[in-house]
């Protein structure tokens, strides 16, 4: 095999964790390579996750709005038709532009982009099998950062063909709108992709094991409201139902489900079934066994506070290890890991990582949910404000949703902020900053917010936490 000169850092995986770590390491003056086997940079997020799903969510929303919500605004539009091929082409264009952009950033920062599958063969060596089939490359390195991400958790007995039985990867690439779609799992992927296909005309049923949708972390009040709003948009929900088994041998797909409450069984049929029951760490072919690195019972690579494995020079970030499986979380860790290598210190505030569900309206939150605060035993106060009482939401004819604050009863320090409503994903940034700075709800309520904006609902929910809101 051929050899290149020694690197300071070799990053395995070119997703949000890996590419950011590689750029930061290079910016810090370290000789850095990034190994990626997909043929494009950006990982799950840019290629088959965040970016393509948001493109489809945005454009399917515009289509749906023109079809169902435009007349009341005084706009008459006739003959609205879906051009799914064009919608997919617009998505592909966004993806291509962004993944190509990272390649340019690599060049600008002097990161060596190695296209192939990386395998750790020793504490200081990564061997790469190039995707073009060329000769194996040996990269000698002082440090390794593992950022190999995650993959969809399969549903036992239902083989994914990405046509009839799909994961999110198939759900961003269907070539026609299915008549009936069943989504297994009412978490973020299920609700986002279920929304896309429901808006485009599919009859969508979401089967969720728990008694609430939204996946782990969503505040119960927000989850309830989300279910009501999405239900009104036409998505059917079967909460407290478990999918027992599936059969895709016929023309469509049959699922056997069971009520968690009374064990009553039922059969559902659909043209397409989306499996969205979570994601699991991806370490196939990585060679962890060559260096004795262990994973936990859920497949996550075990690390310490500085992202180190049992080998001090091998660090791990992103979906393949602990914590929320979110792109911005992986990016923060990428920067911190590079800084640890160069400077010996780095930091991520895990208490201030926002979550956003890009349905319409969006749901967004940061900090603890009410059920988490309750479980901690801390005394707390809650303040809420409905968008129905917000002037901008009213003029926009988008009044679904609310802002909810949870603060420490004694100190008024903000513990959690939960929003469901128009533009919640942008609005939550103010909440993240509040938590990062250790703000009290009164700090926020006494900060001037422009009128008329949706963010006044944010201010008033803060006010309602220690005092009374003006407009509610
Ligand atoms: P990944 O992005 O998975 O990247 C890992 C990369 O490593 C992959 O490209 C893989 O090909 C490569 N790789 C693996 N093994 C090797 C090897 N041995 N050699 C070379 N290369 C290798 N998060 C958000 O924050 N916001 C969203 O809106 C959002 N939407 C999502 C929508 C969907 C449909 C999905 C599936 C996920 C979404 N996520 C979202 C989650 C987000 O995509 C992940 O949290 C993020 O991509 C994790 O980054 P990562 O760098 O850890 O791993
Ligand atoms: P998830 O963990 O969010 O939700 C999975 C849901 O499936 C859970 O509610 C679970 O109770 C349910 N479930 C599991 N087995 C079931 C069964 N047999 N029958 C019925 N229900 C069952 O996982 P999801 O939605 O697959 O997403 C994976 C991760 O991807 C997310 O947790 C998130 O980290 C990331 N993501 C983030 C997005 C964002 O930030 N906007 C968008 C999409 C994905």
TrEMBL record:
InterPro entries the UniProt entry points to: Class-I_Pyr_Nuc-Dis_Oxidored, FAD/NAD-bd_sf, FAD/NAD-binding_dom, FAD/NAD-linked_Rdtase_dimer_sf, Lipoamide_DH, Pyr_nuc-diS_OxRdtase, Pyr_nucl-diS_OxRdtase_dimer, Pyr_OxRdtase_I_AS
Binding site for FAD: 54, 118, 148-150, 319, 325-328
GO biological process, one term: L-serine biosynthetic process
Record key words, sorted: Disulfide bond, FAD, Flavoprotein, NAD, Nucleotide-binding, Oxidoreductase, Redox-active center
SUPFAM superfamilies for this protein: FAD/NAD(P)-binding domain, FAD/NAD-linked reductases, dimerisation (C-terminal) domain
Highest taxon in the source lineage: Eukaryota
Active site, renumbered: 451 (proton acceptor)
UniProt cross-references to Pfam families, sorted A to Z: Pyr_redox_2, Pyr_redox_dim
UniProt domain FAD/NAD(P)-binding: residue ranges: 7-334
Enzyme class: oxidoreductase
Domain Pyridine nucleotide-disulphide oxidoreductase dimerisation: from-to ranges: 353-462
Co-factor note (free text): Binds 1 FAD per subunit.
Catalytic reactions of this protein: N(6)-[(R)-dihydrolipoyl]-L-lysyl-[protein] + NAD(+) = N(6)-[(R)-lipoyl]-L-lysyl-[protein] + NADH + H(+)
Swiss-Prot/TrEMBL cofactor(s): FAD
Example of a GO MF term: glycine dehydrogenase (decarboxylating) activity
UniProt EC number: 1.8.1.4
Binding site for NAD(+): 185-192, 208, 278
NCBIfam families for this protein: lipoamide_DH
Name of protein: Dihydrolipoyl dehydrogenase
Native species: Arthrobotrys oligospora (strain ATCC 24927 / CBS 115.81 / DSM 1491)
